[in-house]
Amino acid sequence: MNGEWIRGVIEAHIEGAPENTLGNAESEPAFEEVLVGFANGADPLFEAYKEHVGPFHFTPLEIFGRTFPEEDVSPRDLTVISWILPQREATKAENRAQTVYGAERWVRCRILGERFNARLRERVVEALGEEGIPAVAPQLSPHWAREVSPRYGKASRWSERHAAYAAGLGTFGLSDGLITARGKAHRAGSVVARIAVPPTPRPYEDHHAYCLHFATGDCMACAERCPVQAIDTGGHDKETCARHVKETCARHALERYGFDGYGCGLCQTGVPCESGIPV
User: Fold this and answer.
1) What does the pLDDT look like over 23-60, one tens digit per residue?
2) Burial class of 139 by CB neighbour count within 10 A (0 to 12, 13 to 18, 19+)
3) Is the whole model's pTM more than 0.85, yes or no?
4) Residue at 274 is within a domain
5) Is residue 122 situated within a structural domain?
6) Which of 56, 89, 218, 267 has its CB surrounded by the most CB atoms within 10 Å?
7) Domain presence at residue 278
8) Could you list the residue range(s) of the whole structural domain that residue 126 is in?
């Protein structure tokens, strides 16, 4: 069992699962490709997250141990499997043209695409289980919960983007989005498993390495795209952002698209890091 086998499980599910849909009249898929990376459970970054985000943030060993208390396991025995599902070009193009609300494809991908992402997490856990490998998707665990970080405000016990950063898939931008080789417009997922997979090399040391603003001091494209001024040189105002996305944008989606959902993503499209690494 190796990383390529796991990648194959993920790619096969993206290609064949009926849940991979935007649910629109065109019957478009939500996603067409994937980036996959791996991190070892003993990676010091996971302990660093507890220090920076909050003591509530799980290490791989903590979430695995709560799920499988009978397993005698060390952090080094675990691998974090992380993936990025880039938004399709049609979704990005439609959202790129918006100035206040998320486009219909974007909203559908936020709801139905994330529903598929949840099923993908389940499928990876199932496939590993069929091979006798215990695994857990932290985001779907009953132990997962939202928390408040003393330093960063809204947070949770497991972050998909932080897992992806540890797995060499990208670094953070000014707006808190993760900039990957396929850009910042994406969904992310992860699974923790008792399996030995070589970790993906991290081609960066700075957690802002791929952000043009931190590289040059100039780019503020994501801030200019934000319709509620929730991004500035100090970073991302999560409360203001959440009110716009979950209240204003949700009302618009129901009234305009007849769709019960929410989503904005303007800071992820129409910016230099939309579809790649600008640095």
Assistant:
1) 999 999 999 999 999 999 999 999 999 999 999 999 99
2) buried
3) yes
4) no
5) yes
6) 267
7) no
8) 3-268
